[in-house]
Specification:
A hairpin with a 5-residue loop joins β1 (about 40) and β2 (about 45-50). α8 runs antiparallel to α9 (about 145-155), α8 packs parallel to α10 (about 170-175) and α9 packs parallel to α11 (about 180-190). Strands 1-2 form a two-stranded antiparallel ribbon. The relative contact order is 0.09. The chain is mainly α and about 190 residues long. It has a domain at about 95-193: Ankyrin repeat-containing domain (Serine Threonine Protein Phosphatase 5, Tetratricopeptide repeat). The protein has eleven helices and two strands; from the N terminus they run ααββααααααααα. It has helices at about 10-15, 20-30, 60, 70-75, 80-90, 105-110, 115-120, 135-145, 145-155, 170-175, 180-190; strands spanning about 40, 45-50. It is about 50% helix and about 5% strand.
Length: about 190
Amino acid sequence: MVPGKFFIKNLNQLCASLTTDELTELRLFYHKFPDIIAVSDSDNQIFYLDSKSEHSPNLSQLISEKGSIRALTSSVDHSQYSLTRFLLEQGGNPNLLDNHGDLALNLAVLHGNNKLVELLLNFGADCNLSDSEGNTPLIIAAQRGRLTIAKLLLAHQSEVGRSDLQGRTAINWAKIKNHSQMIKLLSSVKSEQ
């Protein structure tokens, strides 16, 4: 195998298992970022297509010792539901930081993607983990005023009192950003915790 290049195995098997919509989404994603396309071999290892495009992420940044961390966060960052689900089904761990210090759940919250937030939580994403800046998903939801996502995170036992590296909690951020409904929600939950 050529260093830095990864070859797809069992592509026909993968394509046969996807729906028409999933195949379309996979093709669109491949055209934008060929390096990120992942398939599973019989050992459940993730392989990537190589790309010479200067606009695609560096292949070495996509691969970690454990497999698909960067691929998972990249698929979330680009709102690719089917690919994210596929990577999670193949054993992708939503609780690991990628090379940029990002967590998949935090990116889904950042983009306001309720469907991806729910998917990641269903696959065991820990809503109390912090990214490299100390942000929990709830802090990001509070910063962005994402009330529906905040409720979903709280239903999954997200802790209101956690703070980022600046010492600010979700309530602090809701106040700074003047998100009155978020302040009300978080204050009511804090009194219960």
